[in-house]
Write a structure and sequence with these properties.
67 residues, mainly alpha, 2 helices, 0% strand
């Protein structure tokens, strides 16, 4: 569908924030004096926070069945 408006759902934003935090942590480990393991461990904590938000604070809801 060309020209259709695209919107991002909460699930899309959560997945993007997980990837963003891990990429940012990996770059931080490579570009600074931190070890990569330490940086990725810190990044996994923020990614876990995003997952916790998606699962417990704003869980996915089932869509009503089409009639």
């Amino acid at each position: 569908m060309l020209g259709a408006a695209h919107t991002l759902s909460t699930a899309d934003l959560v997945l993007a924030s997980i990837a963003f935090s891990m990429v940012l942590a990996g770059l931080g480990g490579v570009l600074t004096s931190l070890s990569v393991v330490t940086a990725l461990s810190a990044g996994s904590l923020t990614a876990s926070g995003s997952i916790g938000y998606a699962l417990f604070y704003n869980p996915p809801e089932e869509e009503p069945a089409a009639a």
